[in-house]
Write the structure tokens for this entry.
Amino acid sequence: MATALSVKHLIGIKDLTADDIELIFSTAENFKEVINRPIKKVPSLRDITVANIFFENSTRTKLSFELAEKRLSADVINFSTSGSSVSKGETLIDTVNNILAMKVDMIVMRHPKAGAPYFLSNYVNANIINAGDGAHEHPTQALLDAFSIKQTLGDVAGRKVVIVGDILHSRVALSNILCLKKLGAEVKVCGPLTLMPKYIEQLGVSIELDLKKALQWCDVANMLRIQLERQDLKYFPSLREYTMMYGLNKNILNQLDKPIVIMHPGPINRGVEITSDVADSEQAIILNQVENGVAIRMAVLYLLAANNKN
């Protein structure tokens, strides 16, 4: 197995090899032991300064990265656009260069525009970690999702995973498809045809429009929320109708011939894509995903920083 990542930045899953992903997983397993100890900190990034730059709202991802950085003993700077010079018209490069002038080593960035982290990586020397760019990619979410499947079922290869919901606007869906396919899983997407990207099948996945058939087929169902904030027109008549067709409830789960694993990247819209009795059931590993997110992000930060020292 590889002992170092093949990339300087984590811009997207498409840039990673299967060996890179397995290295991140094995490193995350070690860090998962660390964060379950009474003393949860290690000095791995003691001399590293990380800037979290979020141009979009975030709760789970931002908190998860900040906790991961602090568990590794890094110095942390948090930057948000509200109240910053961005609102005065400052460019992305100027904003980041001003932060780098403070001797920052790594940047974790979320941006509403697809490609922003890649664009930035061509102009700065710091490691860039993409915490979500528009409707493009969210690589650490895909890594923690695949890691959670591996921890729950023993392996990702050969598993059948269905991603249900707003595939068209979801960066989580794209990153998950790329990651799961690289690890040998079978992937289907399920949702209204209006919420399917035109060329989705070119990624090696198939479309299933019937939720019950998709659930009967799969080992794992990853339920996505409807991203109303990214929708500039109506893709279905109403949320109530969407829920009737694609909402997962306990009655549907109980009709299946086998137990399946339920995932959700959050935030959950309870009663829309998933009901509370499913989200809080034993089949759901949603809180495991949150815990694994800290370990995965610790692994990514540690491995990218190690590349800088080599």
